[in-house]
Amino acid sequence: MRTAVWFVCGCVAFAAAARAESPTPVEPPAAKYKIDKDRLIFTEIKDGTEFKSETQNRGEYQAYNAVLLHARQFPNAELEQFARRDVTLKDLFRNADEFRLELVYFEGRLKQLRRTDPPAELKEAGVADLYEGWLFPRDESHPVCVLFTELPPGLEPQKKADELDRWVGFAGYSFKLLKYESRQVDPKDPNLNVARRAPVLMGRSITPLAVPAAGPDDAWLRTFLPAVLVGIGGLGLSVVGLMWYFRRGDRAFAQTVAARREQNPFTE
Known about the structure:
Layout: H1 2-21, H2 58-72, H3 76-82, H4 89-94, E1 103-116, H5 120-124, E2 130-137, E3 144-148, E4 166-186, E5 189-202, E6 207-208, H6 216-262
Parallel strand pairs: 3-5
Antiparallel strand pairs: 1-2, 1-4, 2-3, 4-5, 4-6
């Protein structure tokens, strides 16, 4: 009996030691920032449309709230650290499905920023404010719409449409291609504006940055290209001047020849 008891105790001790030696699997740092794309609500996200209310598209409405809440649980600096920086604006336009819910990072000029009331579900979760901005990535003429729940120090929602021009960085989850009404008047109907599309990124906050130093392309555009254009313009003016000069000489010579032809050769 005593031998059996010692045997059982030994087995228990061995199992405990084995558990102590087996390390608990640790989730990779970047894994916790990823969103489970297989959730049913994310299949309801529709590109090329406006944001949908709960009654219009319940699945997309829930996905909208879920992504913002997911981003809100991480410090903004961590989102920027683990965001992808190899995704371009063209990627989000051409392959919206492929990059949906991917955490990506952009820098550029923030041209519009306004505050809106968050949906009821976000308010219940403690979100008091929701901010919408329009960011033009560097060297791009099309914007991305950025949504976030915390405003950084030194940045305030604008009061007028064209008074904001700040260089910022933003890390957010790619949500959808949003249909929006631009400021360009529709040539077919002056009462309407042209409808366009823009990628939507959802994050926690936005980071004001110093305006980057001009790159080689910027320097070329500001110095070499204008010099070339001025040179071409000067050359064009020179050609025009020479043409005018020679034509003037041709007219004078022609007048002299005509006058000599009219003279009587038998008179002095």
